[in-house]
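Methods: example folding runs. The two proteins below were folded one after another, and each record is reproduced exactly as written to the output file, sequence line first and structure-token line second.
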Amino acid sequence: MKKGYFALLFLLIAIFLENAAEAKSLKKGEVYRSLDRAAIEVISGDELEMTGGGKTTVAKYGFKGDKLRAVIGDEVIYFEITKAGLKDEKSGEVYYTKAALEEMRKFTDNGNGTVSQGTGLMWQQGENKKVNWDSAIAYCENLSLAGYNDWRLPNIEELKSIIDVKEEPTINKTYFPNANSFFYWSSTTSAGLSSYAWYVGFSGGSVDLIGKSFDIYVRCVRSGQGQAISHSTLSIPDTQSKDEELQKLKTFITDQWKLVSQIPPPKRDWRELVTLKITGKYDDYSSLYLFGLNMRGRASDAFASADKFLKKGDLKNAQKYADLAIRHYIESQNLFKASEEVFSGSISMTAQILEAAYRGPAEASKYGWGLMCGPKCYEVADYVFLLTDFAMDYGLEGMDEAKKNLIAKAFVKTLLKMGGISSWIENRTTHLIGGSGLYGLMDKTINSPEFQKAFMKALAESGAYSAKKLAEAGAKKVIQNSLMFVKGSSNLKPAN
């Protein structure tokens, strides 16, 4: 009898506690904000207004044990309730209380190359040169600064916590005076795309993915007297099917492709143009701006290539060209920034950017192209290299790289020997590739019987194929793929 009595008593207590939990409520009017500028506002005893991604929805809420349960239609979202705010259990996104956000904005210059944050984190005040993701991880783990050797690369939530949208760069310049308006690594890898990691762009506070092979900035952190801020990741299981991986990459390519098409407008104000003319800097400014525009076109072309591989279900090459697109996008950003530096009078920056961007000779050696015609060739070379790579990868699956290089050299040498192309390069009068007529000339040249005959001969002599018939079949496939690339080339123009 006593056992039954106690069992019933425990059951009643459990029901009471569950109902008591369900009866809890949040304070009306309280607002929780994420570092991605999304927000959750308590609008009544059982309703939340959730804002983010350009839309606002109302959710019913209650409590399940120690978790907040929000219901939007058929969707149920659980939040972990912490001292700092609410953490979405599925996405990892944290919505902070006003007090927690205020602590993030408190900084102390320690006078020893470090800055302490109100959260308890300690930041490296300066930063290292640009490195890839693996090197960034190693750099922070091996850093010895201000008597500490427990530095690490910050996760994305920690890195977002030092964004200050009121500043440019979007970081508190009082405490981080030498910060760059550029991308900084986080340690957070995309669970869906293991070759990508999250970054923060301090030219506007953007947060996005980038290939781990790229060289961007790094700022190290240590936990100090507090705890690491929990990080936000893509909640995609590690054991994804190929279809799921392709879908994730498709979303990434679509989103980034839109970003590439957003081009900063050139100087149009008459006062700015007069200043450039008087100081003799107009040609420098114009060349850098248009070179940046051409590089942005290459980024768009690379995304178009990635999309074609995606439609074939070729995940490896789709990722390769998506990475290349991001690389060209970063180069274009550098060039646009350099053009602004010309306007502001910082000429040294221009020289560095030009040296980095005009990498033609190194690439040319891969294809046997001498590039003796200077800057006139470089931008055209970028286009030809991208076209040739695509023609090799799209139609010659399974072929080893040595043979691909032989075919590529034969293709480029044949193309450059055609009088129309070499004459166009020599007499080129405009920096803007898209409006220069190059695409039409490429299409006409590659389509011509003269080019096709010469390419087949060069390919047969290259040794890439063991028989003439195989060489002819390979040549037709490369020609077909290169024409596909030319027809899809981006004719990006300056914004109005």
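Second run, written to the same file directly after the first:
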Amino acid sequence: MPAPRAPKPNDPVAIPHLTHTLDIYAYDAYVIDTAQRHGCPMLTLDQGLSQAARHVGVNVIEI
């Protein structure tokens, strides 16, 4: 049996999936999902959020 696929951005289960997979708060998962959905980089000073976003392929701009 194949492993379950990760949900696509804007999928109703995307936020809970990111929250569980990355061990982050739902708010952080929402920010990551929004960046994925819009195909835009994130700007954050939060190192944990930055690492989680990079882990799922979101480009993070450091200032």
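Comment on the second run: Residues 14-61 form one domain.
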